[in-house]
Amino acid sequence: MSTPRTEPTPPTPKPLCVDLDGTLVATDVTLEGLIAFLKAAPWKLFSLLAALMSGRPALKRYLAHHVTIDASTLPYRPRVLGEMRRARADGRQVLLITASDQSVADAVGAHVDLIDEAIGTHSEINLKGRHKAEYLLSRFGAKGFQYLGDSSADLPVWDAAGEAVMVAPSARTQRRAERSVPNARVLVERPNKARAAIKELRPHQWAKNVLLFVPLYFAHQYTNLDLVFRALMAFFSFSFAASSIYVLNDLVDLPADRLHRSKRNRPLAAGTISIANGVVLSAAALIVSIVLAILFVSPRFIWVVLGYVALTTAYSFFLKQKMIIDVLTLASLFTYRVMAGGVAVSVPLSEWLLAFSIFFFTSLAFVKRYSELIQAKADGRMSIKGRNYVPADMPIIVAAGLSSGLLAVLVFALYINTPAITGYYPRSQVLWGICLVLVYWIMRIWFLAARDKMHDDPVLFAVKDRISLFAGVLVVACLFAARYT
C-alpha cells in the first residue's frame, strides 16, 4: 500500500526589517530630540551631559522622558513606505528596528499602520550595528530576514541578512556593502548634498541685504569706489551671517516647518541634508562672514555682525513666539541692515531714513504673519505652530499693518521737504511720485495677502513679482528725474 504524497511546505516569507533614522525617515530622531530639548531648556545642558556619560541608551531614555517626538511630523520616505506596503501585500511581516528609544519606536509604529512590530533601544545595549545584527540573527537566523538600512553601521546587519537593501547610502557605504554582500541594491538614491546645502543657505534671501547700500546712496558717496567695495564686502559678510541664522532657525523649527505648505520643502525639514550637516553648515557660514568682515570691512563691523547674529538667535529661540514682539523684531532686523550699511562705510544715518524703515518693515512683518494665518486657516488649522497668533487676530493685524505702511509713506512725504532733499534734488517735487508708488504697492501687497496669492515673505515676493519690480523702476525714475532734469 503506497503512502499518499504530501506537498512540500512552502518556505515562510522573510520578514522585512526596516531601520528608522535615515531609512524610514530622512532625519535622525535622537538629534531632533536633542535640539528640541536644548531649545526648551538650554540651562539643562549639564544634566544632558551627565546622561550621555552613562552611555547612549541612557541619553536616549533621558531625551525620551523630556521631549515628545510627534511621529506625524517626521519626513517619511515614500519609496520605503512603498516597499513596506508591498511586503505586507505579499504576506510578509514588517518590523521597525531602531537604535532610537523604545518610546520613539512605539510612536512611529502607532502612526505608520504598515508596521507589525516596533523594536527600539530599551536596555543598556544600543540596538545598532553589531547588536542589531545579533538580535535579528537570534530571532530569524542567518539570511532569514531582509533589512533596509542607510549607513555603514548597518553593514553587520546586511552581512547577517545575506543581502543589502540600501536607502540613500553614501558612496563609501555603497562600495563597502557591494564588496561584502553578493546581493546589494539601492532602493533610494542619495540626494545631491552640495545642491541641498546651497538651497538651505537660501542665497535668494540675500536680496534683503541690498539695504546695506542705502546709506551709501543717500550720503551721495556712490562714486567713491573704495566705499563701494567696502559696502559690497559688507553685503557678502552680512549675507553669510544671515544664512548661518537661516540654517539655525530651520534646525530649531523643524516640526513647525513640516506643517507649512512651502517650508516643508526646505532641505532640513525634508531631510535632504542631515541635522549634523546643518550644524556644520551654519557654523561654516558664520566663519566666512567674520573672515570677510575682518579682511575687507572693519573691526567695528564685526561687532555689528555679531549683534545681528545675537538678535536673530534670540528671535529663533524665543522672540518669535511672543505676540507683537516678533513683528517688531523682524522690522528691527531690516532697519538693522540699513544701520549696518552706515557702519560699513562710516556714514551717519538720517533719522528720517530710520523712521521710514521701521514703519515700512513693520507693515511687511505684519503681512508675513497675516499670510501665514491665511494659509493656516485654509489648511484647517486654528493657529500657526510656533507663533502666538490665531485667525481671530487677523482684523487687528490688517489694521496695524496697513497703518504702519501708510505712516512710512507719511514720513517719506515729510522728508521730501527737508533742506537735505531740496538742496540735492533741484526738482524735489517729482519725488511726490514715489509716495503714490508706495501707497499703491503697500495696498496691493495687502490685497494679495488677503487673497492668499502671496509668498509668506513679502520681500522675496517683491523680488519675483513683475509689478513690484516695475514699481521699483518707477521709484528709480523719480529719483533720477528729480536730480537730473
Q: What distance lies between the first and last C-alpha atoms, to the nearest angstrom?
A: 119 Å
Low-confidence stretches: none
CATH architecture of the largest domain: Orthogonal Bundle
CATH topology of the largest domain: Farnesyl Diphosphate Synthase
Q: State the helix count.
A: 22
Topology as a string of helices (H) and strands (E): EHHHHEHEHEHEHEHHHHHHHHHHHHHH
**Which percent range fits the helix content?**
55-70%
The CATH class designation of the largest domain is: Mainly Alpha
How many beta-strand elements?
6
Mean pLDDT: 90
Strand order across the biggest sheet?
A: 3-2-1-4-5-6
Structural class computed from helices and strand pairing: alpha/beta
Reconstruct the topology from this structure.
Layout: E1 16-18, H1 29-40, H2 45-53, H3 56-66, H4 78-89, E2 94-101, H5 102-111, E3 117-121, H6 130-140, E4 146-149, H7 155-161, E5 163-167, H8 171-180, E6 183-188, H9 193-201, H10 214-218, H11 225-252, H12 254-258, H13 267-270, H14 275-297, H15 299-317, H16 325-344, H17 351-378, H18 394-416, H19 419-424, H20 432-450, H21 458-464, H22 466-484
Parallel strand pairs: 1-2, 1-4, 2-3, 4-5, 5-6
Helix pairs in contact: 1-3, 2-3, 6-7, 11-14, 11-15, 11-16, 14-15, 15-16, 16-17, 17-18, 17-20, 18-20, 20-22, 21-22
